[in-house]
Amino acid sequence: MRKLFIFFLILSIAITPLEVQKVFSQKNSIPVIVDGDQVSYLQKEDKVIAKGNVVLKYKEVTVNCDEAIYEVDKNIASLRGNVKITSEKGVVFAESALYNFATKEIQISTVRVESPPIYGEAKSGKGIYQTQYTLEDGFITTCNLKKPHYRLTAKRITIYPGKRVVAKNVILRIGNLPVFYLPYYSQYIKDRSFPLHVSLGKSKEWGYYILTRWRYYLSEENKGRIHLDWYQKRGEGIGVTYKSKSKNFGESLFKFYSIQDKLYREQERNELFDVYPEREGTSFKYLEDDRYKTQFFYSWRPTSNLSIKSEFHKFSDKYFMKDFFYREYEVQPHPLSYTLADLAFHHSSLSLLIQKRANHFYTETEYLPKLEYNIFKQKVSPTYPFYIKSQISLANLSKKNANSDQDDDALRFHSHSVLSYETKLAWLNINPYLGCFTTYYSKNTFGKEDILRNAPEAGVSLSTNLYKIFNRKFSLFGEKVSKLRHIITPILTYLYIHPPTVSKSHIFQFDSADDLERKESVVFKLDNKFQAKNSSRQWDFLYFSPSLEYKINEEGRGSYFDNVKMDLEFNPTQKLTLDADSNYDCRDRAFKEANVDLNFQDEKYAFSFGHRYARKESSQSTFSLTCQLTPKLQFKNYLRYEYKTGDFKEQQYVLRRDLHCWWMDLGVDVDDESNVTVWLIFRIKAFPKVYIGFDHTYHGAKKSY
User: Fold this and answer.
1) Selection from 198, 190, 197, 196 nearest residue 220 by Cα
2) 33-194 falls under which CATH superfamily?
3) Alpha helices of 41-169 — where are they, by DSSP H?
4) Contact call for residues 168 and 216 (beta carbons, < 8 A)
5) Which residues have a Cβ under 8 Å from the Cβ of 640 and sit 6 or more positions away?
6) CA 607 to CA 598: how far, in whole Å?
7) In 3-state terms, what secondary structure has residue 504?
């Protein structure tokens, strides 16, 4: 007969001093439920002995085993045979264990820990259940098979369930074969990247190559990566990335990479120009073989209204990032070095910018420094709807030309203030405004000193809102719509900027504040928004906004219709989206720019198409497809085609094979010069992020390629 005991003993009789100690122990015991085929209570020893299909329960912890001895006064259970301890954070299996239900301390032998995505085994272990386990002479893996495909073995491994894993002197084994040594291993469960990345491949510029990234972890506030790379044609590259995070001093990121580029040696000049013909004719002093990058990023918010940001970028030459970190180069081909402090007030902000050129091969404007005060749009009077906004700056400017000692410099004071009035006449919103640009320069392009430039402006904006609700139900691309609301906002804007008292041709062009000239125009814009609703959600179904600009009495061109702009966003379903924008030049009767993005995604397929058109520059289409061919095999590709030259700028094809706990990516990339790059990447499913930078994903036509 199965017996069930709930131990919560209360003694209410007279007792001896020895019995008082026992009563105190009983009062500190906890209610553990013990169940089994045979359960007996030894009153003198204050123990419960259970055998056969034993189950012990306390709160969220459940223990299963063959035999158990539970010491009531100590809250300790001695467990033997097929031990299984289960909770929300995972499962522990063992041959035998000693478990304290009060403190959750545990000692185990022949143990297996399952805390997905981490699995571990060891000869013995100890720790605090659900908080920390230390495994002795064991391994961890993300493979849930009894004989895992790969293991990380170490003398001692510490697992913090649901948080992280830490070990020293780790050996990565594929099967029983040791393939890599890690002096230190730390893996945060929420961090989706594996500490070790190894990529193999071949390209025209590099030859055969091996790229490795090892992530080191000193603490959650101090971590980074070590880069060790080998290029057949270029040599060995080494680099370090260090990231720090402090509650009191902000976040910082440091990147360094260096290579003695064999292709840049003097005796290899002919081969260099064969690979990069556009570099032929470059002065040899800009083609040194000691190539490197040093980058630093810093962000700190010491108070809720004060922020400090800083960036520093130093490169050996202008081609370094393009040669070795092309994806970063695509995103930011010309990074700036600066420090910016911004202090926010209730209705204004004060900023200080220091920007200094770090690379002589770039043309940049230096701000040494620039102090700017912004007054946000705010009401002037509580009685009347007058509003004011203003921007005031003082800057010491220097325009540095690339690879030259010649530069332009001046001290500039600049202000732009606008006074506006907002009112409503029946259904019409009226917003007239007056403004003025005032700028002082210490000198102009002719060397004349103390230049004052003024340019008043005026304008008005008229708008209204109209809407209609359609209760007709319909379905589009499988998405049901029960109600549709159409909101129309016509906007008419008139702008006039008086001719500046000083022509912009007489002023150094440091930034947009100097590019000021007479302007008069009328812009008509018609915003259309369709909001859809069904039983499960409400969303912006369609947004369409065309606008037409008419310029008045422009110097040398007269009055004419200038640009027709269009912005379109179409979201019929959560799987399908369409974004488009364009700019049509009425005078030239041609599009200046046009961008289209079409995206579709479901469980098995993902499709993206984009087109980017820039008149006299490029007309490119991008195409991306992801297709699940079989449950174990996936195909991905990325294409970028240039219509003006009639060739592909880039082609990329990737096959992904599911290897249970791994993904194997075999990729091929072909550029516009028929250079072929082949790579092989193994990704652990639990931590799939790889920071190598080969695989290209679709980012949309509206973003630069």
Assistant:
1) 190
2) Lipopolysaccharide (LPS) transport protein A like domain (2.60.450.10)
3) none
4) no
5) 620, 621, 622, 623, 648, 649, 650, 651, 705
6) 8
7) helix
* DSSP of 564-620: EEEEEEE-SSSSEEEEEEEEEETTTTEEEEEEEEEEEE-SSEEEEEEEEEETTTEEE
Spatial CA neighbour of 335 closest among 348, 345, 322, 344: 322
Q: Are 657 and 679 in contact (CB under 8 A)?
A: no
The residue extents of the domains of the chain are 33-194, 342-464, 603-704
pLDDT in tens, 320-346: 999 999 889 988 999 999 999 999 999
Q: What is the DSSP string of 263-320?
A: GGSGGGHHHHHHH-GGGTT--GGG--SEEEEEEEEEEEEEETTEEEEEEEEEESSTTH
Q: How far apart are CA 439 and CA 51, in angstroms?
A: 91
Q: What is the pLDDT of residues 580-618, one digit of tens each?
A: 999 999 989 999 999 999 999 998 899 999 999 999 888
Write b or e for each residue in 93-115: b if 16 or more Cβ atoms lie within 10 A of its Cβ, otherwise e.
bbbbbbbbbeebebbbbebbbbb
* pLDDT tens digits along 580-590: 999 999 989 99
* Tally of residues, the chain: 705
Tokens of 439: 């700028």
